[in-house]
Amino acid sequence: MNGPMSWQARLLMFVMRVQKTFTSSSTKLDVAKDRADTESFAKTFKPLGKVDIVNVDAGGVPSAWFIPPGILTGRVILYAHGGSYNSGSITSHVPLTSNIALATRARLLAIDYRLAPEHPFPAAVEDALSAYRWLLSQKIEPHQIVVAGDSAGGGLVLALLLALHDKGLPLPAAGTCLSPWTDLTCSGVSWTGNGKKDFMVKLLPIQQSADIYLRDTDPYTPLASPLFGDLTNLPPILIQVGSDEAILSDATQFAEKARAAGVDVRLEVWKGMQHEWQYAASWLPEGRQAIAHIGEF
């Protein structure tokens, strides 16, 4: 998608490669550590501008409005954070959600959906559905809503689209997914093919994350793994993913299947990018460019 990698991206790749070399690579999932590490990201990168943050109860789901200055439109983004369904929060994703709100010039509602292992599937889907219904109850029209999310949150908003369709509820105008986790069987070719290129996401901990989220649920269940759902009649979807990500095939396979079902899909594969490079927009030109594309979409 992008041209030659920026010097910032090359430097970041070098630092991550060195860190990987000198860090013990545990294959055991540590939820407490993952939660602490995910929260620390919010202190590493900064929003590109000022955004007002207002806490709100969205149909029983703890949420927060991210409101850029001077907003004159009624458009709204419903946002689900990433974190393998067991970590992440509104706070951990402040830089990313702020920048998306600024780029789209729209109010963004970020939700703190319930996490595994305390709250396994389908708690996250139920919370996303509750928040969407709450938006409708606030007299926000479906054609003014876009659902968006990153990683597990990207998979969650795709599951939300399937749930809305199944229940006969009005669909939003569009969906936007950053490196979506669409297949909890983790059987895509890139999980092994890009295993050495991806410095952030590892197969075994991800499989363990899937296990604690699913508990006794079949991983082929569409509301857990949207790749296996009926994708007909979904709204337009933008998908961004890095070429070096282990999760690459989750994105490309979903895009291929959605297109075959007649969905208007815009797939952007960004050369050399790592998982959630958009998060580093305050430092990484490719992050700012990707977020600008989201704004345009």
Description:
The protein has 297 residues and is α/β, with parallel strands linked by helices. The chain has nine helices and eight strands. It has helices spanning 7-22, 31-44, 94-104, 123-137, 152-166, 190-193, 203-214, 248-260, 285-296, and strands at residues 52-58, 61-67, 76-80, 107-111, 145-150, 174-178, 237-242, 265-270. The chain has an eight-stranded mixed sheet with strand order 1-2-4-3-5-6-7-8, sandwiched between helices. A hairpin with a 2-residue loop joins strand 1 and strand 2 (61-67).
Topology:
Blueprint: H1 7-22, H2 31-44, E1 52-58, E2 61-67, E3 76-80, H3 94-104, E4 107-111, H4 123-137, E5 145-150, H5 152-166, E6 174-178, H6 190-193, H7 203-214, E7 237-242, H8 248-260, E8 265-270, H9 285-296
Parallel strand pairs: 3-4, 3-5, 5-6, 6-7, 7-8
Antiparallel strand pairs: 1-2, 2-4
What profile does the largest beta sheet have? 8 strands, mixed
> Between the first and last Cα atoms, what is the distance in angstroms?
15 Å
**Mean pLDDT rating:** 93
Low-confidence runs of at least 5 consecutive residues: none
Which radius of gyration do the C-alpha atoms yield?
18 Å
* Percent in strands: 15-25%
Derived structural class: alpha/beta
- The count of DSSP E runs of length 2 or more, i.e. the number of strands, is 8
Strand order of the largest sheet: 1-2-4-3-5-6-7-8
**Percent of residues in helices:** 25-40%
Based on Cα principal axes, name the global outline. Answer: globular
Number of helices, where a helix is a run of at least 4 consecutive DSSP H or I residues: 9
